[in-house]
From TrEMBL:
Similarity comment: Belongs to the ABC transporter superfamily.
Descriptive protein name: Oligopeptide transport ATP-binding protein OppF (TC 3.A.1.5.1)
UniProt key word Cell inner membrane: no
GO annotation (BP), single: peptide transport
Length: 642
């Protein structure tokens, strides 16, 4: 196979007020035709900057050195006009957010035709015909009609299919995928990965897959490069990296991932601390402050990325002076690199479910939205049934999860509960109090103490102009807590969620994403609620930070006897944290039971399709699984095809 892309000692730096930011500090790799290189790491590790440097899309203030050779020609030093001849023709990129990748004022057809005529000199009719062929290839039905649609008229998954069609248009030799499935449902993610593989098969292109999802890497990558602080810290074939991991950071990333195929609920392995600021880094291992096996020699100089012996017979590089001491099971001296903490035994673990108090009960919840027509005088022409008569209860010390694709009604269900929406033919009962029976505004405020919510976006949920102390104390003052008691409670809550009480006067912007989510959890716990509603609480976090938040939620449930109502699209997280799960489809529960019953023996075809789409972070398992898709017309499953 021929080498499509060769990167040598790539360095990228930016000027900032605080000093020079060394975003990429010496990256080298090769990608051959038909092969896929997976690049993984936390936010700020340099993954995306590396890809943008290859495409020539960095800002003018970026200083780029080293060498980037595409099919033998050097890209560094080329003008933007010269790069434009290569971009979209020889190289293509699929970005994370398809809506911002597409121009909102042009139709899908215009954008596909432009991609073809700009590089291949096709006539308008030839480009139109090829565009129809591409839309059909990526699985978009009725392409003639869809060509005339605008991007906002497509769903997220369909928009990403269009972006892939544009990337495939000119049969590129290199396709760079920057988190192409992060914002998508698990079933849509599986379809998009199938499409990328199909695009690779059609063109024989080399693919660079940038992602934080190790399951996606296990499915797609031939080689894997793990980046930290702007440099590769481990680089090996996929099987080697997953089964003979030698860098403590890589071991931590794998240990931080909840797995859908694991029944035992052991604590996840969070990588404590935060990545370093990439300004004036000392000549030392950048991971040493977070590494559980760091020794004095680790801070004397930064280790080189060198060959390590694993007995696998393949090239395996790691940047760790203790890599040779680590065995295939991720142990050093017979002990795990990351000590496994025990989950605190819940006070309710020995109490049968039926004997525990009910903290939340939903009876026959229904929610419809009117369909209106008319520009000035609106008239009702129909109804959308968002929630169709669902019923469930949550017991003390229990986690109830609701899963399903976007549009299934999960968030509407949560909003009905949090809005205390009265039900015409049902009821919502919180801690024994009926919502339908509330007649007094004061009683409603009293009841709000018992139910609190943690939102998906920790930054969007916190007022940036308020200090941490003000954020946590706001609900306490709202319920009339004395000032002296509030101060004591704020300190107690910060300590409970693993934040330093000395940082109480800082603003949210001074904290990392995981710390901001901990602030949100502390605020939710301030009124001593009986049930906490969690709306995708970890989806915006890196896997290493996600693990710490999930462990914290487990610990708080055991310690305080909390009940959780948990909504997430990541079924691996649900498998790890939930006791019971309800699968929602078009506003109804199609399957409902204990998490082990539903995950190990799914009965409904929709549940079977959801579970088969979840990537498992093990290439041996992931690449031999049979995937099925749900057919809504026959209400059955069928083999997955593009």
């Amino acid at each position: 196979m021929s080498t499509v892309l060769s990167v040598r000692d790539l360095k990228v730096s930016f000027a900032s007020e605080a000093g020079r930011v060394d975003a990429v500090r010496g990256v080298s790799f090769d990608v051959e035709a038909g092969q896929t290189l997976g690049i993984v790491g936390e936010s700020g590790s340099g993954k995306s900057v590396t890809s943008l440097a290859i495409m020539g899309l960095l800002d003018e203030n970026a200083r780029v050195t080293g060498s980037i050779q595409f099919e033998g020609q050097e890209l560094l030093g080329k003008s933007d006009k010269q790069m434009s001849m290569i971009r979209g023709n020889g190289m293509a990129m699929i970005f994370q957010d398809p809506l911002t990748s597409l121009t909102p004022v042009f139709t899908i057809g215009d954008q596909l035709v432009e991609a073809l005529t700009a590089h291949r000199g096709l006539s308008k009719q030839e480009a139109w015909d090829r565009s129809l062929e591409l839309l059909t290839l990526v699985g978009i039905s009725d392409p003639e009609k869809r060509m005339k649609s605008f991007p906002h008229e497509y769903s997220g998954g369909m928009r990403q299919r269009v972006v892939i069609a544009i990337a495939m248009a000119n049969n590129p030799r290199l396709i760079i995928c920057d988190e192409p499935t992060t914002a998508l449902d698990v079933t849509i993610q599986a379809q998009i990965l199938d499409l990328i593989e199909k695009a690779q098969d059609e063109s024989g292109a080399a693919v660079i897959m940038i992602t934080h999802d190790m399951g996606v890497v296990a499915r797609t990558a031939d080689d894997v490069m793990v980046m930290y602080a702007g440099k590769p810290v481990e680089h090996a074939p996929a099987h080697e990296l997953f089964h003979k991991t030698r860098m403590p950071y890589s071991i931590g990333l794998l240990g931080a991932i909840p797995r859908v195929d694991k029944v035992d609920k052991e604590p996840l392995i969070p990588i404590k601390g935060n990545p370093p600021l990439l300004i004036d880094l000392p000549d030392a291992c950048p991971f040493a402050p977070r590494c559980p096996i760091a020794i004095a020699a680790c801070v004397q100089r930064e280790p080189d990325l060198v060959e390590v012996a694993t007995g696998g017979g393949e090239s395996h590089l790691a940047a760790c002076i203790r890599a040779d001491e680590i065995d295939d099971a991720g142990r050093i001296g017979g002990l795990p690199v990351y000590p496994v903490e025990k989950i605190q035994e819940s006070q309710f673990s020995s109490v049968p479910r039926e004997k525990r108090p009910v903290t939340l009960e939903v009876r026959n919840m229904v929610k419809t939205f009117p369909l209106l027509k008319g520009a000035f005088f609106k008239r009702k022409v129909g109804e959308v049934h968002a929630v169709k008569g669902i019923s469930f209860d949550v017991r003390e010390g229990e986690t109830m999860a609701i899963v399903g694709e976007s549009g299934s009604g999960k968030t509407t269900t949560l909003l009905q509960i949090m809005d205390f929406e009265k039900q015409e033919h049902g009821d919502i009962i919180i801690a024994g109090t009926s919502i339908n029976g509330l007649r007094d505004r004061k009683l409603e405020r009293e009841l709000r103490r018992d139910i609190q919510i943690v939102f998906q976006d920790p930054m969007g949920a916190l007022d940036p102009r308020m200090t941490v102390a003000d954020i946590i104390s706001e609900p306490l003052f709202a319920i009339g807590t004395p000032k002296k008691e509030v101060q004591r409670r704020v300190q107690e809550l910060m300590d409970l969620v693993g934040l330093n009480p000395a940082h109480r006067d800082r603003f949210p912007g001074a904290f990392s994403g995981g710390q901001r989510q901990r602030i949100g959890i502390a605020r939710a716990l301030s009124t001593n609620p009986k049930i906490v509603v969690l709306d995708e609480p970890v989806s915006a976090l890196d896997v290493s930070i996600q693990a710490g938040v999930i462990n914290l939620l487990d610990e708080l449930k055991a310690k305080l006897g909390l009940s959780y109502l948990f909504v997430a699209h990541d079924l691996s997280v649900i498998r790890h944290i939930a006791d019971r799960v309800a699968v929602m489809y078009l506003g109804e529960f199609v399957e409902h039971g204990t998490v082990d019953e539903v995950f190990d023996n799914p009965q409904h075809p929709y549940t079977q399709a959801l579970l088969s789409a979840i990537p498992v972070p093990d290439p041996d398992i992931e690449r031999t699984r049979t995937r099925v898709v749900f057919d809504p017309e026959t209400m059955s499953t069928k083999p997955a095809t593009i």
